[in-house]
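REQUEST FORM: STRUCTURE PREDICTION
Request ID: SP-0412
Submitted by: Lab K.M.
Chain count: 1
Length (residues): 560
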Amino acid sequence: MRKFLSVLLAMAMVLSLTVTSFAADTAADAKAEMAGKTVILHTNDVHGAVEGYAYIAQLKADYEAKGAEVILVDAGDFSQGTTYVSSTKGADAVTMMNAAGYDVVTLGNHEFDYGYAQLKENMSKAKFKVVCADVFNEDGTPIFDASYTYTTKSGVKVGFFGMETPETQTKANPALIKGLTFADKDAFTKAAADQVAALKDADVVICLAHLGVDAESAPYRSTDLYAAVKGIDFIVDGHSHTVMTKGEKGEPIQSTGTAFKNIGVIVIDDASKKIESNSLYEIKEDTAKDAEALAQAAHLERKPYFYTILVSGVDDHNGGSDTNILVAVDAENDYIYGVSIPRDTKAVINGKNHKINFAYNSGGTALLAETISQQLGIPVDFTVTVDLDGFAALVNAICGGVYEVPISMNYDDPYQDLHIHFSAGMQHLSGAEALKVVRFRHNNDGSGYGSEDIGRMQTQQNFLKAVAQQTLTLSNVDKVGEFAKIFQQYVDTDLSLGNLAWLGKEAISMGVDKISFSTLPNEWRSPYIYLDPDATLELVNQYLNPYVEDRTMEDLDIPS
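STATUS: Completed
RESULT:
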């Protein structure tokens, strides 16, 4: 597949060079063809078909070469649908839309699939404007700007406002959209009418609507909106995956279908400042693609059934993320690989140098995952935060852990009421005792592992593997209910029950021999641990990279 994409990219580059050469000979004629026109190219319901962004980027370049000014817009549902975008909770969709050069978008119901907090995080990375007039925060303000006026170089003012389907209230997980209000009934119509009034100075008013035309969506269809609200010049529609250039009664409504089946084209005459035509540009196998956007899509192609999970052990008694392990699950090749991230690893957090575990103190699991993702150049697909008391409870549930304590341990901390005293050798440990062993860093006299955190992480990795071996045995099958209660009480995660069931099934089928651990390659230079960039890149590509294409040093961001 990677070779195919490379060939395709090479072909696209040759094609672009050919087109460029031809254009140089006919530049004057080409520029005159669309001079004095503004072209709006639009998409809807892309649903993760990220290679399609190369089509719209190339079409934009083609129109610009003909002298037109081009605006790129989308009517929602770009964040979900394939592993390209779902595995990063929509973030990679934003990356591709930035690369393609989108200007204005509205939201679809699937933008809320990962929760409002994740949506805000994704949109904070957007280089385009987000408009949504009918979804409100608890204080009654729109969650994003309700409308936006795009003024072209020729002075045409194009006003955009966004309308989200009220069906999102029932299609999205209620817990993930708690506190949000989706306008319905009269409030729905009023939200649109208010924005038409607010855009009174615009030459053209366009609604980016994720409403659709399906009968079951009445009375919140795009056709219903156009009938109820005067002053809308055109509706770019989505949601129902309909292919149309006008409504049933001739309404100025256009929709492209889904997954780049078509690209919508709206042409505005700059002199009259009116829409003069609209049409659909059908995407075919031989449709030209922009080489840069195609390369970006190839860079984001995911391996099948490969996921990354950040597992963090949190000490609620003292605060902070005490243990962080990035786990790669490769179900296609039957392996689970965990990489410990030293808590003293140097990281840039909120613009300042810190130890990486400060990210949890500063911004919780989300900031910790973002910081790790930025350093390693790969996404963190899911997070699991475990209270250390939960670790102890799990060990007790499997009737203790049989483990060889690597060194004699003698440590006392009266402040924490923590006392660790074990002799080296095979031990049967209770949950509380196991917790002490994996937390141990050095003895009272300063002796111990030699390299405190590194030695401790090796002990943690070995103990986790021993616990996994005992947990996955048939003798513990009847304790699933007890495990579930521990999980419910002590674990915070964005993995669904379905995700967890799948992961458990895969782990059991692989067996403990397919579970391995290591530590990010590093060097201690007080007060930080510094990652070795070259060795880290090699480890990432060998074990952690969920993408088909190898990461490069440009993808990593390791502080020096």
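NOTES: Residues 48 and 82 are 5 Å apart (CA to CA).
Reviewed by: T.R.
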